[in-house]
Amino acid sequence: MIKRYVEPDRGLWKNLCLRALADDEIIEGRVKSIIERVRCEGDAALRSLAREIDNVSLDAIEVTPEELRDIYKQIPQPLREAIASAARNITKFHMAQRFEPVRVETVPEVLCVQRAVPINRVGIYIPGGTAPLFSTVLMLAIPAKVAGCKEIIMCTPTDKEGKVAPAVLFAAMVCGVQRIFKVGGAQAVAAMAYGTATIPAVDKIFGPGNRYVTKAKEILSSRVAIDMPAGPSEVLVMADDEAVPAFVASDLLSQAEHGADSQAMLVCSSEAIADAVCAEVERQLPLLPRKEIARKALSNSRVVVLSAADDRLDFVNMYAPEHLIISTADAWGVSARVTSAGSVFVGNYTPESAGDYASGTNHTLPTAGWARSHSGVNVDSFVRKITFQAATPAGLLELADTIVTMARAEGLDAHAAAVLERLKYLPDKE
Fold first, then answer.
1. Edge to edge, what strands does the sheet with 102-107 contain?
2. pLDDT (tens digit, 9 = 90+) per residue, 155-193?
3. For residue 4, what are the β-bridge partners?
4. How, if at all, do strands 110-118 and 383-391 pair?
């Protein structure tokens, strides 16, 4: 079921790191058409697209107070408590990320300051589809609140009756999301980018989604900021003789059940480990309600056997996984050498699902190799850092020769003059 590669030559690694991608040109054309309709027709396009794509008739685009009134009663108490517990952990971890202002006197009487200023209005996208991800509400809205964003709006698709999943609504209420809209797909991204009569334009868009959502974010990123490039979810497990095959198999399957285009990778030290893990996958897979989805994802997945520890680590850093699970001896020591990963899960008793839900770290992470250059969502994602500087006359005098010399060398004489004109007003330095 999972393709296996034993001691592949490094020249093959690049191909082994490829993700499964559908025909992007077809998707791009469809998404551009959707974006243009939303830009030109606004709310009317959102209603039409809901009928055409999702077979849903929307009475109201925005979730009404009446729909929220009894939402608490629709959530079983154990789930309410679980969401509240996860929210506390996520808040605690993200509160620790708050930025302290930088205040430095670089030379005498020249003060430089950096402050974090929250983004005013942010939009979060919560996928629906086969598994409404209410946990993603926590992962996006909580750091936005911690950062101090004044307005948080949310778009999410509905079911066939035009209703948003109760757990998604409940999580939004727990996190203080102000407005919720019943719009999914590329049209939701377009609505948040351009604004409609009902949905306000935002300053930055956050959230994972299918290929249509991802492509819309990519296309619209020249108009509105986005959290990161992203695509189908993925996991890579590093395993040696310290790994428990049943645990590793469960981690691979927990990723595979996300969607048919997900990818689960195993990089291990021997064929014996590969055999044991694959046997466990075969045992556990039939027990899953989403086994057919997982089976399709596993056909896009790979087992790579590399006996040398350095080779395994090099392969991991080349792949740059969204989720990296380290099930090896000296797992913390191995983790210290990881340079490209969205989030790392250290040791046999740290499943990916811990970070997905409740440990406190964020699960909105870069995929498709973007972990080589992008971070996952954190409090910094919701702020801008503005620098300030102030020089006294004595401070400007201290910098003057450096500024004038550099400005003239670049042929920017007005820059030099901006300093020299001020120096004329200084008292006689003699």
1. 102-107, 110-118, 383-391
2. 999 998 999 999 999 999 999 999 999 999 999 999 999
3. 303
4. antiparallel
What DSSP letter does each residue of 211-231 carry, written as one string? Answer: HHHHHHHHHHTTTSEES----
Q: Please answer whether residues 298 and 318 qualify as being in contact, where contact means their C-beta atoms are separated by less than 8 angstroms.
A: no
Residue with tokens 């309410």: 80
Which pairs with CB-CB distance under 8 Å and at least 24 residues apart come from 49-58?
A: 49/185, 49/187, 50/158, 50/182, 50/183, 50/187, 53/185, 53/187, 54/157, 54/158, 54/160, 54/184, 54/185, 55/160, 56/158, 56/159, 56/160, 56/161, 56/162, 57/162, 58/158, 58/162, 58/182
Residue 88, token pair as written in the block? 């506390």
Nearest C-alpha neighbor of 140 from the set 127, 130, 131, 129? 127
Tokens of 39: 């830009």
pLDDT at 128: 84
**Token match 């939701």: residue?**
188
User: 257, 322, 352, 363: which one is catalytic?
Assistant: 322
At 9, list the tokens.
């030559």
Identity of the amino acid at 166:
P
- The CA distances from residue 320 to 33, 365, 373, in Å, are 33, 11, 9
Cβ contact 298:2 at 8 Å: yes
- Starting at the earlier edge strand, list the strands of the sheet with 343-346: 3-6, 302-305, 263-268, 234-239, 323-327, 343-346
Residue 24 has pLDDT above 90, yes or no: no
Architecture of domain 24-98+118-230: 3-Layer(aba) Sandwich (3.40)
- Topology of domain 3-20+232-360, CATH: Rossmann fold (3.40.50)
pLDDT per residue as tens digits for the range 346-388: 999 999 999 999 999 999 999 999 999 999 999 999 999 999 9
Domain segments of the chain: what residues? 3-20+232-360, 24-98+118-230, 392-423
Token digits for 281?
């996958």
pLDDT over 70 at 129, yes or no: no
Q: Which pLDDT band, with edges at 50, 70 and 90, does 288 fall under?
A: very high
DSSP letter string, 271-307 = HHHHHHHHHHHHHHGGG-TTHHHHHHHHTT-EEEE--
322 catalytic? Reply is yes
Residues 6+ away with beta carbon under 8 Å from 365 = 230, 322, 323, 342, 343, 371, 376, 377
Annotated catalytic residue, options 94, 258, 323, 363: 323
